Amino acid sequence: xxxxxxxxxxxxxxxxxxxxxxxxxxxxxxxxxxxxxxxxxxxxxxxxxxxxxxxxxxxxxxxxxxxxxxxxxxxxxxxxxxxxxxxxxxxxxxxxxxxxxxxxxxxxxxxxxxxxxxxxxxxxxxxxxxxxxxxxxxxxxxxxxxxxxxxxxxxxxxxxxxxxxxxxxxxxxxxxxxxxxxxxxxxxxxxxxxxxxxxxxxxxxxxxxxxxxxxxxxxxxxxxxxxxxxxxxxxxxxxxxxxxxxxxxxxxxxxxxxxxxxxxxxxxxxxxxxxxxxxxxxxxxxxxxxxxxxxxxxxxxxxxxxxxxxxxxxxxxxxxxxxxxxxxxxxxxxxxxxxxxxxxxxxxxxxxxxxxxxxxxxxxxxxxxxxxxxxxxxxxxxxxxxxxxxxxxxxxxxxxxxxxxxxxxxxxxxxxxxxxxxxxxxxxxxxxxxxxxxxxxxxxxxxxxxxx
Length: 452
Description:
Layout: H1 2-10, E1 14-20, H2 25-38, E2 42-48, H3 51-59, E3 65-67, H4 72-75, E4 88-93, H5 97-101, E5 114-118, H6 123-134, E6 140-145, H7 148-158, E7 162-165, E8 177-178, H8 182-188, E9 192-193, H9 200-215, H10 218-226, H11 232-236, E10 246-250, H12 254-263, E11 269-273, H13 280-286, E12 288-290, H14 294-298, E13 303-306, H15 320-324, E14 330-334, H16 343-352, E15 355-360, E16 380-382, H17 391-410, E17 419-422, E18 425-426, H18 428-433
Parallel strand pairs: 1-2, 1-3, 5-6, 10-11, 10-13, 11-12, 13-14, 14-15, 15-16
Antiparallel strand pairs: 4-7, 4-8, 9-17, 17-18
């Protein structure tokens, strides 16, 4: 019997039934990951429950452990361990702007905001209500939601504000939400990190797919098939071989370089422009031609792929003047950021024939309004920002987010390739890729978007 007990202590097995209030799910996943590393034989049954349901199921032995807020009622009759102290952040819609949101870092300053909060039956909401009461504020709650997804969607599309625990920030989708611009993060000493490299290969593959679909006129040909036709002459009227074309990338970071490597076997002439020139060995390996400016590169390229970040230097980089410097009948592929291209200039260039095609999966604003001209312009191959969101990439997101949060909670340095802002300045990959400033003006247009 002693031997059996000793073996059980070394290698645990069975199913651990865990009840979790929704706002603690990101933190609990870190704890379970550590437990998994120690005891690989344990399986987990994770249930998102209210505080009352957790207490009841613990009392009835339907759960083995529960994660909830601590108060006198919870502590009575249970073994309790304190994990962390929750902090709260204000989440505002894109386009709120730093001026409009200035000073909203205190409970008593939020009284005039239209708020969307979690359902009144949830304990997190009760904690928030108590904080408002202590501040002497009667919040204006216009909407309630029973899930994080519903709450963030309401903030994004209905133009409201919300208050969330800091532990949920890694789970909040970023498109269309003003959490903090880089400039605001620098000014306030906020650390900003991203899971760099998580979607690089996914995006690079998407770029190559879009280049081929444009050059080979794939999408119109597919439409003929869907319509029951066999119009070969129409299908090939705008179809070319990629071989022999000059293809250039604006920026040759992790995504741009991955695109270049995937294009080399197509026997194309490869070009790039970047503020940081690639090592000579890489230039020789890929037979690359470096250009000191975007203008000098686009004048010789049949296809231009944009792989640079959006910041003040790249905002509307591809305007009417830049597009006029390109070869007539060239293609633009943009999986970087929609605002790097001037919306109306792209439409005009496609209609005039200056551009033969435009494909991308980034828009400005996002989500794009139903009447956004890029939805209906000719010779386009747009997708709704999916290039980096394959299931393979999502697995890498999760692993990287866990690493960043573990470092943050443990007070350990976050590695440079993940850091964007730290200590009141651009840091790590952020210092390499960005310039300071605000390039988000106009995002409020996303408020016109209504899901079908």
